[in-house]
């Protein structure tokens, strides 16, 4: 199983997200899942990470990925969950995207 984690800014987030997601995959019975952090595009902000155009480009570029995980900060935005839910629904037509706010 190939998992691509899409953080808003990989520079520091990768050191927490990679081992955390790998452990979560092992806990759900996928210990050999290949967990990769998106590092070839520095999105740099929540808005850029949640941009549908950016996400579509990522989905197209990483067609061999089985599971995309979009992980962004909540930043005290009470509507962030609803926005992430909408992105999940929109992506369902072309891939498996799970989105979460930290």
How are the elements arranged and paired?
Blueprint lengths: L1 E6 L2 H18 L6 E4 L8 H4 L2 H10 L5 E6 L7 H12 L5 E5 L1
Parallel strand pairs: 1-2, 1-3, 3-4
Structure summary:
The protein has 102 residues and is α/β, with parallel strands linked by helices. The chain is built from four helices and four strands. It has a single domain, classed as 3-Layer(aba) Sandwich (Rossmann fold), CATH 3.40.50.
Tell me the β content: 15-25%
Order of helix and strand elements from N to C terminus: EHEHHEHE
**Which structural class do the helices and strands define?**
alpha/beta
The total of helices stands at 4
How far is it from the N-terminal to the C-terminal residue, by CA?
24 Å
Overview of the molecule:
Helix content is 43%, strand content 21%. It is of the alpha/beta class and 102 residues long. It has a single domain, classed as Rossmann fold (3-Layer(aba) Sandwich). The chain has a 4-stranded parallel beta sheet with strand order 2-1-3-4. Helix 1 links the parallel strand 1 and strand 2 (34-37). The longest helix has 18 residues, at 10-27. The mean pLDDT is 95.
Keywords:
globular; Rossmann fold; alpha/beta; about 100 residues
């Amino acid at each position: 199983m190939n998992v691509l984690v899409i953080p808003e800014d990989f520079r520091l987030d990768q050191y927490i997200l990679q081992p955390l997601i790998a452990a979560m995959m092992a806990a759900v019975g996928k210990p050999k899942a290949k967990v990769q952090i998106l590092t070839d595009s520095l999105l740099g902000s929540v808005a850029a990470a949640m941009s549908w155009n950016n996400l579509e480009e990522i989905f197209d570029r990483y067609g061999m990925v089985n599971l995309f995980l979009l992980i962004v900060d909540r930043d005290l935005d009470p509507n962030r969950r609803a926005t992430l839910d909408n992105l999940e629904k929109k992506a369902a037509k072309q891939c498996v995207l799970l989105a979460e706010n930290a």
